[in-house]
């Protein structure tokens, strides 16, 4: 679906912007029913894959930040930080969201889309070398 078209005056080139039809099929029902997109969220900021690779992390989604007053903060999710000596203290690494394995940050985003705000799910995280199970209620991304 084409959403915008730029035609510079005096030029013979055009630039089009579009949305893939698969994404449109996924978004439109929410827009019709609620007037906005209903997406669940945890309330975390995640490291990108380059950071994960640089840190030698092969699986999961590394939490680098937790939003104040979010579901993640209420559940006790730990963000990445620094020790007093300046070295990095890794935050929780999300390995599983509900029944879905999380190998990359993209996996986490896709897994979240299978749930709704208000759902109580279980996260499996790696924290200081051990697996921790954390119940969390997903919130509306608004």
Describe the model:
This protein is α+β, with helices and mostly antiparallel strands. The protein has helices at residues 21-34, 49-54, 71-75, 105-112; strands at residues 2-6, 15-18, 40-41, 44-46, 61-66, 81-82, 88-89, 93-97, 100-101, 120-127, 130-137, 139-140. The strands form four sheets. Strands 4, 5, 8, 9, 10 and 11 form a six-stranded antiparallel β-sheet that branches. It has a two-stranded antiparallel sheet with strand order 1-2. Strands 3-12 form a two-stranded antiparallel sheet. The mean pLDDT is 85.
Short summary of the structure?
23% of the residues lie in helices and 35% in strands. It is α+β, with helices and mostly antiparallel strands and 142 residues long.
CA-based shape: globular
pLDDT averaged over residues: 85
Beta-strand percentage range = 25-35%
Uncertain regions spanning at least 5 consecutive residues:
none
How many strands, what sense, and barrel or not for the largest sheet? Answer: 6 strands, antiparallel
Taking Cα atoms only, what radius of gyration do you get, to the nearest Å? 19 Å
Q: Which structural class do the helices and strands define? A: alpha+beta
Beginning-to-end CA distance, first to last residue? 24 Å
* SS element count, helices: 4
Tell me the total number of β-strands.
12
The succession of helices and strands, N to C, reads EEHEEHEHEEEEHEEE
User: What fraction, in percent, of the residue positions are helical?
Assistant: 10-25%
């Amino acid at each position: 679906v084409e959403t915008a078209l730029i035609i510079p005056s005096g030029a013979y080139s055009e630039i089009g912007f579009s949305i893939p039809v698969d994404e449109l099929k996924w978004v439109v029902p929410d827009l019709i029913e609620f007037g906005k997109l209903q997406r669940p969220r945890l309330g975390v900021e995640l490291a990108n894959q380059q950071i994960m690779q640089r840190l030698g992390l092969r699986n999961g989604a590394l939490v680098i930040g937790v939003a104040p007053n979010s579901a993640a903060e209420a559940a006790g999710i730990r963000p990445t930080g620094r020790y007093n000596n300046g070295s990095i203290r890794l935050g929780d690494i999300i390995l599983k969201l509900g029944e879905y394995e999380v190998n990359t940050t993209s996996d986490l985003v896709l897994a979240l889309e299978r749930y709704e705000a208000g759902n109580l799910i279980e996260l499996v995280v790696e924290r200081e070398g051990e697996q921790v199970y954390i119940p969390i209620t997903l919130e509306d991304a608004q």
